[in-house]
Amino acid sequence: MTQFVRQTKVETAKELLIASNLSLIEIAELLSFSTATYFVKTFKKVTGVTPNHFRKHFISRPLDD
Questions:
Q1: What is the pLDDT of residue 61?
Q2: CA–CA gap between residue 35 and residue 60 (Å, rounded)
Q3: Quick check: 46 and 60 in contact, CB under 8 A?
Q4: Interatomic CA distance for residues 26 and 28, integer angstroms
Q5: In angstroms, how far apart are the furthest CA atoms of the chain?
Q6: Interatomic CA distance for residues 63 and 5, integer angstroms
Q7: Which of 27, 29, 33, 57 could be stapled to 39 by a disulfide with Cβ–Cβ 3.0 to 4.6 Å?
Q8: Helix, strand, coil shares of the chain as percentages rounded to 5?
Q9: Alpha-carbon distance 8 to 31, whole Å?
Q10: Chain-centre distance of CA 34, in angstroms?
Q11: What pLDDT is stored for residue 43 in this prediction?
Q12: How far is the CA of 53 from the CAs of 14, 59, 62, in angstroms?
């Protein structure tokens, strides 16, 4: 997977994690990751945090930060 494609998929995943209640498996499938595990690994490699941590941290922060 090229860096551009990886970055684009992770940015889309961030939006889905924030704006939807889709599970990690559903997001992984929607973005054509081969497995949910690979999605989590890729997301963490790009962002430094897991998708679950990102979702919880973002939702717990005020939106006007």
A1: 56
A2: 27
A3: no
A4: 5
A5: 35
A6: 28
A7: 33
A8: 70, 0, 30
A9: 10
A10: 14
A11: 97
A12: 11, 10, 16
Q: Are 17 and 51 in contact (CB under 8 A)?
A: yes
- Mean pLDDT of successive 10-residue stretches along the chain, which has 65 residues: 92 96 97 96 96 87 52
| Lookup: tokens for 36 | 């949910």
- Residue 55 tokens read as 């979702």
CA 51 to chain centre: 5
Integer Cα distance of 1 and 5 in angstroms: 6
Helix spans in 21-62 (H): 24-30, 36-47, 51-60
CA–CA gap between residue 62 and residue 65 (Å, rounded): 6
Residue owning tokens 């054509």: 32
